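Justification of resources, computational component.

The compute hours requested in this renewal are based largely on the per-chain cost of generating structure records like the one below. Each record pairs the submitted sequence with a full structure-token output. That output is archived, and it is also reused by downstream analysis tasks.
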Amino acid sequence: MLLAARRRVTEVLYSQLTAPEQEPSRPVHTLGGMTRERGGKATETDGPGHDLAPLAGRFTALFIDWVSCLLLFYLLSWTGLWPTPDPFTSNLLIASLFIVYYTACLTFRDQSLGMAIMRIACVRADTGGRLGLWRALVRSVLLSLVLPALTALGNRYGLGLHDVAAGSVMLKADA
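The structure output for this chain reads:
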């Protein structure tokens, strides 16, 4: 199912993004053959439209990943393997740990721990494949700033600035 969703994204994603705007009277928008109503709700049809990951699942996955990095940092600090400097440096180390973790997950797989729990995957928008090192790094750095993730709330397709900059899209994954 994920492969079919990747093919649909590959086939029509950019053609839909460059298409002229639809009339305001139509409540449904399409992205890569996948439909979303205004407000981020998926349509209730059997056809395409259930492939984009919901925003709630994306934010939950991000929360799980961030908490995992926090727990790992505190575990390493508690055991003495990682020195605990002042709070500012600790926060920078936690953000750096998140960037390394997230980049590694998206470079070698298409899911992080939180994404696997929420059954979503992050793939390239143009090919449907893995992001690769540079796209994953760009996405991770921007995502660690939090603000680009919040821009997904205002995008009709649920894409944040980190998705646009990395050329990525979040899809529902197989169970």
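Residues 21 and 29 are 9 Å apart (CA to CA). The two ends are 10 Å apart (CA to CA).
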